[in-house]
Design a protein that fits this description.
There is one protein chain. It is built from 13 helices and 12 strands. By secondary structure, it is α/β, with parallel strands linked by helices. The chain folds into 3 domains: 44 residues, lambda repressor-like DNA-binding domains (434 Repressor (Amino-terminal Domain)); 127 residues, Response regulator (Rossmann fold, 3-Layer(aba) Sandwich); 134 residues, Rossmann fold. The strands form 2 sheets. It has a 6-stranded parallel sheet with strand order 2-1-3-4-5-11, covered by helices on one side. The chain has a 6-stranded mixed sheet with strand order 7-6-8-9-10-12, with helices on both faces.
Length: 337
């Protein structure tokens, strides 16, 4: 049985079909008295707009895409949940895909013959594609970038202040009296921009504390995975003067580092204090629980979705860097509770 139509609502509210359409779609100002009358009729008839028909009329799909490097990385899974929630509140469906951090897959997505016609806009967290390649992409689907590149004025970009976050995490460790603070996760090459920002914050914290950086304590990793965190920690423990604290560039690296410390008979935080980044749920229940930099994932999602939809609707301003808050959560791995 077909549901109520705009004509049915107009008849119940004793107004024109155009007035009902204006209320439902927000196309034009309507007096409060008329809006209340139409809304009452909508509620009484349990009217549900035909989103498919509306999108077809507007030349839209009603879908946006979220593309991340790795869905099995908890941070991206938790962010995807927040994006779905934010998009649903705006009447959009989210398609999710992953690139595996592969440059060719990222370039294919941005190419002229890509699947871009399947969705109205793209939230993209690129790992390997450069800013120049993004600007030269073959399709013109609206894009908002998430986190992984330094803002250069070409696209809207939503991220935390990675320098400030790393400075705060490292400063916390130095403030505990630790003087050999290691860093795990540096990526000193063109596409490792987020890692480089965190290394910059790590160095700034040392400079502010008047502590010289021992370059041997900065360990690069090609990815932010548990295994690489454990391997990096093992190499640090083999130094003549091993660290008494470690700042890891994400929580997975930190959890791997803690595992390596426990295997080596080191106590966390007594012998080595550990801080991560991302505030994934796993860190709350690890032993010890993990001190971390917590980005506001819900706000990242809301800002990204709202900015993308504004771009789709032609309402967005010039590309901007949207900085989302973060906070340090102190748990057992640095002596908290």
């Amino acid at each position: 049985m077909a549901g109520p139509t705009l004509r049915d609502v107009a008849k119940r509210a004793n107004v024109s079909i155009r007035t009902v359409s204006n209320v439902v779609n927000g196309y034009a100002p309507v007096s409060e008295e008329l809006r209340a009358r139409v809304q009452a009729a909508l509620d009484e008839l349990d009217y549900r707009p035909n989103l498919i028909a509306r999108n077809l009329k507007q030349g839209r799909t009603g879908m946006i895409a979220l593309v991340v490097p790795e869905l099995d990385v908890p941070y991206f899974a938790e962010l995807a949940r927040e994006v779905i929630t934010a998009a649903r509140a705006r009447g959009y469906v989210v398609m999710i895909d992953q690139t595996d951090g592969d440059g060719e897959r990222e370039r294919e997505l941005l190419g002229r013959d890509s699947r871009a016609t399947m969705f109205d806009g793209l939230l993209l967290s690129p790992l390997t594609v450069s800013a120049e390649e993004l600007r030269a992409r073959g399709n013109r689907v609206p894009i908002v970038l998430l986190g992984e590149h330094i803002f250069n004025g070409s696209f809207h970009h939503v991220a935390i202040d990675n320098v400030a976050a790393a400075r705060e995490a490292t400063g916390h460790l130095l403030g505990l009296g630790r003087r050999r603070v290691a860093a795990i996760g540096d990526q000193p090459y063109a596409t490792g921009e987020t890692a480089q920002l965190r290394t910059a914050g790590y160095r700034q914290a040392h400079a502010r504390a008047g502590v010289e950086v021992d370059e041997r304590l900065i360990v690069p990793t090609p990815h932010f995975h548990r295994r690489l965190g454990a391997e990096a920690m093992e190499s640090l423990l083999a130094l003549p003067e091993p660290p008494d604290a470690v700042f890891c560039y994400n929580d997975l690296l930190a959890l791997g580092a803690i595992r390596a410390l426990i295997r080596a008979g080191r106590r966390v935080p007594d012998d080595v204090a550990v801080v991560g980044v991302d505030d994934i749920e796993e860190g709350q229940y690890s032993t010890p629980s993990l001190t971390t930099i917590a980005p506001d994932k819900g706000e990242i999602a809301r800002q990204a979705v709202n900015t993308l939809l504004a771009t789709i609707n032609g309402e967005a301003t010039a590309p901007a860097e949207i900085v989302v808050p973060h906070r340090l959560i102190v748990r057992e791995s640095t002596g908290g509770s």
